Amino acid sequence: MGSTLAIEVTRLSKTYSSSFGLRRKLALQDVSLSVAKGQIVSLLGPNGAGKTTLVKILLGLLRPSHGTAQIAGQPAGSVRSRRRIGYLPENLFTATHHTASSALVFWGRLHGIAPAESRPRREALLDAVGLATAARVPVKQFSKGMRQRLGLAGALLHQPDLLILDEPTDGLDPAGRKMVRDLICEAKREGKTIFLNSHLLQEVEQISDQVAILDQGSLKYCGAIAGLQQKDALRIELELRGAETEAQAALDLYGEVDWQRLDEQRYRVRLNLADQSAVDQCIDGLRAGGISILSLKQLFSLEGAFLKLVAPDDEGKDSA
Amino acid sequence: MKPYLALIGDSFQAAANSRILWIALIMITLFLAALAPMGLDIVSGDAESGYAIDGLQLRYAGSDFGPTIQLPAESATELRVLALAWFMDHVIDFIVGFFGILLAIIVSAGVIPETYRSGSVDLLLSKPLNRPALFLAKFIGGCAFVLMNICYLITGLFLVVGLRWGLWEGRILIAIPVFLFYFMILFSVAALIGLLSRRTVLSIFVTILFWGSCILVASSKQTMERLLPLADVLEDPRMISPEGEGEVPQAEAFWQSVYTFGILPLYTVLPKPLELDETVQYFLDRKGKIKSRSVWSPVISSGIFLLVVLGIGCWVSWRAEY
Hints:
heterodimer, A: alpha/beta, Rossmann fold, Alpha-Beta Plaits, 2 domains, 6-stranded mixed β-sheet, 30% strand, B: mainly alpha, 4 strands, 6% strand, flat
């Protein structure tokens, strides 16, 4: 019986060693996570968190120091597991002698698909990623965004069960990003699992069923986005009336604040606050400055939740 | 098997799309065109020389090209074969064996580093491919491309020699597998360095250095084998003057140990590009002057070297993390 999990990672650790083993760097530490089939899961984390290391272990490009990783019940990196994966690297390099069409033919052949067999799907995919008119154009003339689109078409060509996409919208314009989001959602409707590595939290929030947050090699959170709301990450929207200088002075303590002037005396502000006591303090400060609070709304922000999850360690590191 | 054939075809296509290929093809064509007006006349012998056939005269565009070449041949057929051997030794060995191979290394050295660069290797290894097979497929792809060029050059030479000199010697074509083998040995080094460093320029540089080292070791061996017997003569007490007694045997012992513990082991291990042309000569040699053992020994030891280097390449590609 096949596994119900698309990805299963158990107590995975990875340590990089220098050439003579003199220096060691812990990239992943005891990471366990599972991804059910048919889900869109996004991997988040600051730079150096271990996201790329995890993706490379899933693809078999790196070997884990400890622990195991499986793709649909097969050991990660095995030929059988790689048959089921469609992968888009962050910096896709396509040999300069290829056109968009010939690159897809080549990638298809690497999966054992004959050119004639892959033709209808190639044409459909080039159309879907907006490269139908550029099918015969050499890839050396492509912009980064066009290469990303081509890479995405290549990842989808062999009808994989699992898509691993590393920064799929990097270098794309807003229309291109929407197109990629639509393709990802369509792939989900077809029953595919999508494992996404992205820095664009807004996009992640729009399409993901689950997020996994890595920081300094450790898994900080893995689950539904809604679950993060319960982790006290508060984003507040306030509608205020009063002197602007007084309001600004009261809110200066809380870092970055989004200001929107509604009229001479009214403002809408959005800010991130650590917890409920911070909200109370903020309101007390505004009231002490003679500012009227017309409304108060709690918003959810993945960015806020993300920063809250990864910030404490950073602060600790900075102060060390 | 299909994915690996796709890889071989892709390497071939990548090399075929490079500008250097067209430069190489133009150079080969120009060389063949330059050689085409060269004719070969057999000059009749006379009673004094003792041979029925005296020698051969090269002609270029109808004019004599250099003096008559005296060859100890007794018949026109034998002279033709000797002329062919001369041609193989001076034209094919030098042009193909040096410039051709050098050009082939420069053109194909990028195949492996390009494959293993970031963004390319991760995509390839996410496909259901076996790592050592990926390395070997790319290697074979580079060789296939060079084979095409060697075939063009040698077949062109075969036609020129046949049409202009009247020497329709199919055995010239034996140079194709021999020079391909020669190239494979050097390309295996370039591929291994390219795999380890992922730098095309470095792999070209190291390969040329390695090539030079092989020639240096083989030349040193030949030189020392000629000179060391002379030292034996010098060691004879009757040959040494009383003043210099003891100096020559010490020097001889030193060079003997350099030969025994340095040059000879290196020569045994390293491939032998200098000796590979003897293989071509062997197939042209109707009288069997060249012993088959001396021909096959460099081929076998060079083949072992090739297999070892490719084996290391497969192991490195299998163990590496990307």
